[in-house]
Amino acid sequence: MPDFDKQSYWHTRFESETASEWLIPSSTFMPLLEAFLKKLPGSDANILHLGFGTSDLQVQLRTRGFTNITNVDYQPLATERGRHLEKAAFGHVRMHYITADATRLDSVLDISFQKYHLVIDKSTADAISCAGDDAVLAMAQGIHRSLADGGVWISVSYSAFRYDIPQLPFDVEVINKLPTAKARATDPDIYHYCYLLRPKPKKA
Fold it and tell me: pLDDT per residue over 87-99, tens digit each?
């Protein structure tokens, strides 16, 4: 298996890759986000998009009127391409782009002082899981500390067990199972999972 948790893997990949959507296209993901976007306090809601890579999801979000979006990726080439993609689509750059490790969000000043109404990742937790459950837990703990009151995390994963982790500070719900394409009718059913993660209530 490739070292998806290593920055060097993504550097090599992004040297030639200019556009790719993990697991599902952004156009498929957006309808799953729609109900949560409608609940946001307005178009200036604070959104954190983790591991955007060479996806166009941030462009889809801006098309809906959201510009206060912080796009984070492990690899500088992704942040460069993200800015280029936004400028090509809108003529200028208004979103934020940060090169950072999603397992160490507390160390990023531009993130640690913010509170986000919505956090999104599309298979970023899957890539991080290559370093083990402790890495996914570190990502989850950083997100938990970054969420505004009432904020939620929406995550797409290929794993039905991605968040079966002790000490996870979230209540986890599968809100959609997305069937993958079959080469033959007799192939087994395989799904991708869209998770809703809400912070666990504070203990009295």
Answer: 999 999 999 999 9
